[in-house]
Amino acid sequence: PKHAFIPGYEGAVRTVLVFLPDYLELSQLYQDEISPISVIRATYASSAKQPGHRDFLGSLMGLGIKRETIGDILVGKNSCDIVIMKEILPFLLSNFESAGQVKLSVSVIPYDEIIIPEQKYKLITDTVASLRLDSIVASGFSVSREKAASAIKAGFVSLQYQECNKADKTVTEGDIISVRGMGKIELLEIGNKSRKGRIFISIKRYF
After folding, report:
1. DSSP designation for 197
2. Count of CB atoms within 10 A of residue 31's CB?
3. What are phi and psi of 169, to 5 degrees?
4. C-alpha torsion sign, points 73, 83, 156, 206
5. Pick from 59, 112, 151, 193: CA 20 to 30 A from residue 95's CA?
């Protein structure tokens, strides 16, 4: 069946799978009467202390909002665009008034006006014994393999946006790995092997 993951912008992390009837085109998914998602923009005074992702998410959780109804939180300069399930839109327009100690002004914006902030990252080159998940996590976050394995076992690690508790899971080129409390990395490139049989890799670590 015809389907799509939305929102469809490059780098979208939290997406919704939507199936469409034959009479609808993918381009119609973002029409207000059809789309299951909405986008809100929270703005605040330029003189205010810049709230971060954690501030916005914490405020939403404090309102009793379920995490699964909140998509990407895109923090920019003096504003933050948040993708949400449409069902919570009326509640947020009435009740989402602050992030941290900063007062917000919240409004609905069209999907095509989303501001996607440029992601900053550090490029890491390394060699690993294998492409196991625990090995890539250890390399990307500069922690021991034991600590990486513990985080995986505890359910703190997501591979391609799905929780993965298998330390020996093979990671492939282009895979995204998120670790709670540490951040996000991407296995950018898998190279050749060294003389000692180790694998050359390149990793993006996002900030």
Report:
1. S
2. 10
3. -60, 135
4. negative
5. 112
Task: Say if CB 59 and CB 99 are below 8 A apart.
Answer: yes
Taking the C-alpha atoms of residue 198 and residue 113, their distance in angstroms, rounded to an integer, is 46
pLDDT of residue 23: 86
What is the rounded CA–CA span in Å between residue 172 and residue 152? 17
Tens-place pLDDT, residues 177-207? 999 889 899 999 999 999 999 999 999 998 8
pTM score, whole prediction: 0.68
Range of the domain at 165: 121-206
Cβ atoms of 165 and 176 within 8 Å: the answer is no
Question: Tokens in use for 120?
Answer: 């900053």
| One domain for residues 96 and 153 | no
- Please state the rounded mean pLDDT for residues 30-38: 86
Assign 85 to helix, strand or coil. strand
What does the block give as tokens for 117? 């902030």
State the maximum Cα–Cα separation within the chain, in Å, rounded to a whole number. Answer: 63
Query: What's 19's domain CATH number?
Result: 3.30.70.330
The number of distinct structural domains making up the chain is 2
Task: Give the domain CATH number at 131.
Answer: 3.10.290.10
Handedness of CA 164, 170, 171, 172 (dihedral sign): negative
Tracing tokens 């003389």 back to the chain, one arrives at 195
- Asked if 13 and 99 sit in the same domain, the reply is yes
